[in-house]
Design a protein that fits this description.
Helix content: 40-55%
Keywords: Methyltransferase, S-adenosyl-L-methionine, Transferase
Strand order of the largest sheet: 3-2-1-4-5-7-6
CATH architecture: 3-Layer(aba) Sandwich
CATH superfamily: Vaccinia Virus protein VP39
Number of strands: 7
Family: Belongs to the UPF0677 family.
Function: Exhibits S-adenosyl-L-methionine-dependent methyltransferase activity.
Order of helices and strands: HHHHEHEHEHEHEHHHEHE
Strand content: 5-15%
Number of helices: 12
Largest sheet: 7 strands, mixed
GO molecular function: methyltransferase activity
Shape: globular
Number of domains: 1
Protein name: S-adenosyl-L-methionine-dependent methyltransferase
Length: 291
Amino acid sequence: MKESASSKTAQYMALFRAMETTRSKTKRLFTDKYAHLFLPPGLKVAARLSHLRAFRKVAENIIHKKIPGAYTSGIARTRLIDELLEEAVRKGARQVMILGAGFDTRGLRLPFLHGMPVIEIDHPNTARYKLSRLSGLHIPRHIRYYQIDFNKQSLDQLGAQHHFDFSVPTAFVWEGVTNYLTAEAIDNTFGFLQRFAPGSHVIFTYVHQGVLDNPAAFTGGEKLLKEVAGLEEKWTFGFVPSSLPGFLQRYGFSLLKDLGADEYRSLYLGGREKEEGYEFYRVAFARRLSD
């Protein structure tokens, strides 16, 4: 994945969240009043104008033609991960770690995280850009921003440097990252997660291996892979869903949920919007078992 200050895919997700936030309180899936801060001027204007129904419809059609299914799967996925994170906290998580945080704003916008330690971990370029966009705001003391260059440091080394507490149940959010990594990096990350206390939870996204092997089998798959490759954000890794429980078991985790975009769209947008595409983009939720 390109280690730039601001990836295009991260900007698109921020745009989707900003657009959703312009809906009325009774209709929107979540509120993210910070998402617009990460947008370049043109997209910021588009987000602002999305409160106009006609403009929103045009914008959504443009997005669908460019990346079929990305908008509706993106906003439904955001809501799903919010709810899974709240479930992990209800079940005993006492700190949150957001791996490859990008433009994630959950530490700022989710009330149930207020006062709980939230640790964001990201590449120095992205972290600096994010903090520059948030510089005019008061950042609560419970949120900490740590930087890591994986070419020079491991998560284990970062944990030792900042004295991570491995003894408490932790909720991990790992969104929009695994599809850019190598199998070795995936293994190393789960080895790091395995060090945390039983009762910890991990929420992560992944792409179905099938879209990498045969993109034409999925709506919009070929177009999307060409798009991300052109942005120097080529997808390199996927899971076969049926193999996921066994993989997680190797690292002491039990799979609780594994939903594709068609499923989480149905959960939150069943009565609002019908759209196909992005079914290969999945959200998994797993719990760390006792040793």
